[in-house]
Amino acid sequence: MNEESRVIREEELHAYADDALPPDERAFVAAWLADHPDDAALVAGWMEQNRKIRTVFEADFQSRPTDREMLNSGRGSIFLRNRWASVAAAALLFASGVISGSLATSLTAGDETVAASLPGEARSAFLIYASEVRHPVEVGADEEDHLAQWLGKRLDYPLTVPDLSAFGFALVGGRLIPVDGRPGALFMYQNAGGQRLTVMLGRNEKNHDTSFRYSSAGSIETFYWIDGPVGYAVTGEISREELQRIAEECYRQFDT
Amino acid sequence: MPRIPDPQGIEAGASASASFEGALLALVPALRRYSQSLSRTDADGEDLLQDCVEKALLSRTQWRGFNLRAWAFTIMTNLHRNRHRTAAGRPTVEIETADDLQAPDIVGDPLERRRLRAALDDLSADSRAVLMLIVVEGYSYEETATLLDIPLGTVMSRLSRARRRLGERLAKDNVIPLRRAP
């Protein structure tokens, strides 16, 4: 078929509005839209809808102190039917420290800075994905260049994938994850013994620089730091000393 | 059999249920956002979230051990669809009453939120789920088809219908009715 005579299908217009087209097809649709004002108006309308919908619901991506209680109360026969009355009880339990454990995740909400939520989110991501046997990553190490490019595009930040082979950790791959409600990147590594660690990057303009910090929950250790508009967190179930060396290496490599 | 050697194998059995809950807990923010995007009010959204968490805990044995997020999203979508079917015979909670139930503060413009939700409430449950999975949760068309167990073509037709309907509805909302003098 001749390029000139090719008619754009509606599916392609949707994919354009959702930024789901490969670059060459995207350029082709863009050229079509330049010549077809009706379609261009339609697509512009959809993109505006997308923006509106995301703006309205992105703030709902939050943890609340009652979340853990919600999980606990769902078990067995003691499920509290009066959900709203249970909020106070949960707060009390939470405050008294009855609920604790190694699986602490970010329980901060709202306007907390990324520096405060970063270690919690990094731990959550580690817990979820490091235990995945079959699908730990979206894009595998065999596509390292694509991985860096794709995640860099979503974060709007040029990315390099750290090389941790000096520590015996090889790249498994990476995925797109939400960090503080925005697109973030997660790289996963594994050593010969099957131990995994994750390197997480999250972008947020509100960030302020921090020094290297350390956070631990149970056996899971996280080193994190904020450098300009990007927060970094290195998480693993390995010794603090080794993880620190790895985190410092990541810091060096991201710096270039 | 897991292909990955598991040096923590001894702990794995004992912590299996704990890690399921830990992973589910970590998913709650994403589930909350999805439940809110499907729901008429904040209270309805929080209710849907709780039902989903409860259902996930009860049917944890049906989880095949990978992609907990997609699994939980599927549960939520089904719960939402079922509610929507029965909603006709159910008295709706007045918005003001519902707001009273909701303690946590919502960031953003409440008016815009209400306006958008009113428009989204016009969509079928199925179309709304498709639109939100793609736009808010960032699933690809193919992933959405897998998650909802429907053909790709159905995803596209629902997406198209949702966008047209929403466009009409939002355009209509821009019309400001003039108040007649008493």
Characteristic key phrases:
heterodimer, A: 256 residues, seven-stranded antiparallel β-sheet, 19% strand, B: mainly alpha
Kindly report the oligomeric state of this protein. Answer: heterodimer
Approximate helicity band of chain A: 40-55%
- Helicity range of chain B: 55-70%
Rg from alpha-carbon coordinates of chain B: 19 Å
For the largest interface, the chains and their residue counts are:
A-B, 58 and 64 residues
List low-pLDDT spans of chain B.
1-14, 88-107, 176-182
Strand content of chain A: 15-25%
Description:
- The complex is a heterodimer of chains A (256) and B (182).
- Chain A is α+β, with helices and mostly antiparallel strands and 256 residues long.
- Helix content of chain A is 41%, strand content 19%.
- Chain A has helices at residues 10-17, 23-35, 37-58, 67-73, 86-95, 114-130, 144-155, 240-255, and strands at 139-140, 170-179, 182-190, 196-203, 213-217, 220-227, 230-236.
- In chain A, strands 1-2-3-4-7-6-5 form a seven-stranded antiparallel beta sheet, sandwiched between helices.
- The radius of gyration of chain A is 22 Å and the shape is globular.
- In chain A, 38% of the residues are buried.
- Mean pLDDT of chain A is 78; it is low at 74-112.
- Chain B is mainly α and 182 residues long.
- In chain B, 69% of the residues lie in helices and 0% in strands.
- In chain B, helix 1 (9-38) runs antiparallel to helix 2, helix 1 (9-38) packs parallel to helix 3 (68-87) and helix 5 crosses helix 8 (152-173).
- The longest helix of chain B is centred in the first third of the chain and has 30 residues, at 9-38.
- Chain B starts with 8 loop residues before the first helix and ends in a 9-residue tail after the last helix.
- Classes of the chains: A alpha+beta (256), B mainly alpha (182).
- At the A-B interface, helix 1, helix 3, helix 4 and helix 6 of A face helix 1, helix 2, helix 5, helix 6 and helix 8 of B.
